Amino acid sequence: MSQNTLFNYFNKNGQANNSPNIKQSTPTTKRKLENVSNNSPNDKKSNLSKTPSTKRKLENGKGKDSTPKSVNGSLKKNTPASKKKKDEIIYKSDSEEGEEIKTPPEKRRRVFEVDSEGDASEDEFVPEEHDVSSDDESLSEHSESEPESASEDGSPVKISQRRNPKSGKNRGDSKKAVSSVTPAKAKLQLFQPSTPSTPRNKENGTLDGGDNNWPHLKYDFVQPNRIKDIKMRPASHPDYDPRTVHVPDDFKQGLTPAMRQWWEMKAKHYDCILFFKVGKFYELYHMDAVIGANELNLLYMKGDFAHTGFPEVAYGKYAAALVERGHKVARVEQVETPDMMGERVKNLTRPTKFDKVVKREICQLTTKGTRVFTVQDGESVDADASYLLALTEKECVGGKSLYGVCFVDTSIATFHLGQFSDDKHCSRLRTLFAHHPPAQILYERGQLSPRTHQVLNTSLTSVLKEHLAPETEFWSSTKTLTTLSERKYFDDGTPDGLKQFLSDSDSLGLTASDEADLAVRALGAVTWYLSRCQLDQQLLSMGQFTLYKPVDHEFALQEEEKPSDVISARHMILDSVTLKNLNVLENSCGGTAGTLLYKLDHCSTPMDCSTSGCAVR
Fold first, then answer.
1. Does domain 387-555 have CATH number 3.30.420.110?
2. CA dist., res. 197 & res. 212, Å (int)
3. Which residue in 8, 377, 390, 504 is deepest, having the highest Cβ count within 10 Å?
4. DSSP letter for each residue of 22-75
5. What positions does the domain DNA mismatch repair protein MutS connector occupy (predicted)?
């Protein structure tokens, strides 16, 4: 029995060469047989050169076979045109046996597209115009970032997805699209604001070395050696007001109407950060914008001067962040619409360009001691009270002092007034600061003794302190009661809590008693500051006034009538020094972690919460 080899098989077929149903062998067929029998390294290359046509057949889903295909129930005949085309493909592959595989762009040649004759074109896939254009667009978008991996692994799938455009026009469009791709650095530069500064610092959002180039730093009227308050008093004057600044009129004449509004408000609130309302945004300008960029990581807007901003819905977030850092925030709102502005301008005889702008006013000034948690401000995240405390002093003989205090928690609108004498160590004053830690202190300028200043600077180092001018800002007791009556804060007359501080000899209630004169003066300072913050009507109208007495005041009166060797008090009074050394209310870092108060706040038994907590407080 003869061996079943390809050579014997074709010899047998060669004998039946005269049969009309058997395909005759051609020189190309013999060459193919020789390539199969010889195990040369060029076989893989020749096979790879044939993969594009096979690949396209798989993609088009035609599933072409080597045998003739059945069309309408009859065998497909080999026409001269199809035979000629097959010969061209075979010779094409044979001629490339000794060549290396080209790069993927050269493999995209299509020899089938030039032949529009014959039956072979029926099974060939011809892409539509929109398919080609979409592929070209995707290529242009990713051509610079995606490497071509088809040449590395020889995968035919990657090559099949890249088709040649049908015409030179599409090819030119593709090249144009590739060249129009913007580099990543160029895109980032589009978002860089046009400021006179160097590149932005990634850590804090500021500009590296550019904060010294802003125009507001070069104005003469804000230079430290030339600055004056709104009453033209220099910084060396004893009555200099650092909350205001003088802005020259000739400077304001060259400003835009809106910027003139901003500078007029800034002149009266130089110590505040103005959240200037423009449409649906709050904007910060000049020195306020620099603080916003440094503290809030806001981005500078395009322009020649410092300019930042944020949407109005984020007011509570950004205002609270600045207030916690010790800044004062003034919220500026538009108090008229453009239509109202137009009607107002029509009624003017000779309107100027500064009249053709909507009116804006400061509606609220927020500090650490004047926070009110409205819908716009948001909720409080701190459970402890933040007191605004006013303090005045009168020195007595023997090194003692008489203090008048008034402190208020603006979140609940409760005013505490008190007047007490203290020793030379300021023991009661220190205890007051320990039991009711203030967030902001107001004191009368030039009226505090050196030892009181020492207590404020050592015990309350992180507290915001502000001195007020006598009589004009820190009112007298008579001016305080007169102002309360004229402004009609109380609809039902003087509250009962305030009557105990009035003199019985004055039926009008405009004179304070001798035992409460300093306390009423401290109330006048708080009233002036609340009116500056636009909160006086909101808080004073509640009419909640209480008397503050030092915790040891009643026990001291009882001990004066008894011998010194008798201890009659049922409770021990801890002063501020003891509370600080024992970490009862506050630790050495200023927090509550590890303190007795921190443990009591996390009690889980009813007895601990009811007895221990009440005893400490």
1. yes
2. 9
3. 390
4. SPPP-HHHHHHHHHHHS--THHHHHHHHHHHHHHHHHHHT----SSPPEETTEE
5. 387-536
Task: Tell me: pLDDT of 357 over 50.
Answer: yes
Average pLDDT in the 399-413 region?
Answer: 93
Q: Which residue has the higher pLDDT, 58 or 139?
A: 58
Q: Which residue has the tokens 């509570």?
A: 316
Domain boundaries in the chain? 215-366, 387-555, 568-614
pLDDT in tens, 546-562: 999 988 765 554 555 55
Across 132-165, b (16+ Cβ under 10 Å) vs e yields beebbeebbeeeeeeeeebeeeeebeebbeebeb
For residue 605, what pLDDT is reported?
64
pLDDT at site 592:
75
Taking alpha carbons only, the member of 245, 199, 256, 240 closest to residue 219 is 245
Query: What's the whole-number average pLDDT of the chain?
Result: 73
HEC per residue, 471-513:
CCCECCHHHHHHHHHHCCCCCCCCCHHHHCCECCCCCCCCCEC
- On the question of pLDDT at 588 being above 90, the answer is no
Cβ neighbours of residue 265 closer than 8 Å, sequence gap 6 or more: 274, 330, 332, 360, 362
DSSP letter for 336, please: S
Q: In what order do the strands lie in the sheet with 387-395?
A: 464-468, 438-444, 387-395, 401-409, 414-422, 545-547
Q: CA-CA distance, 372 to 293, in Å (whole number)?
A: 25
**What's the CATH fold of domain 215-366?**
MutS, DNA mismatch repair protein, domain I (3.40.1170)
Structure tokens at 186: 């160029």
Q: Do domains 215-366 and 387-555 have the same CATH topology?
A: no
Amino acid of residue 284: L
Which tokens belong to 161? 């997805």
Minimal CA–CA distance to 525: which of 442, 588, 436? Answer: 442
Give long-range contacts, CB 8 A cutoff, 24+ apart: 89-96: 89/53, 90/28, 90/31, 90/32, 91/28, 92/49, 93/46, 93/49, 93/50, 94/28, 94/31, 94/46, 96/45, 96/46, 96/49
| Spatial distance between the Cα atoms of 348 and 78, rounded to a whole number of angstroms | 98
pTM to 2 decimal places: 0.62
438: β partners = 387
pLDDT at site 306: 94
> What is the distance between the alpha carbons of residues 410 and 370, in angstroms, rounded to a whole number?
6
Average the pLDDT over each of 255-259, 496-500, 562-566, 578-582 and give the range with the smallest value: 562-566
Distance, CA of 318 to CA of 321 (rounded, Å): 5
What single DSSP character describes residue 436? Answer: S
Tokens coding 356: 């053709």
pLDDT band, residue 107 (cuts 50/70/90)? low
DSSP at 246:
-
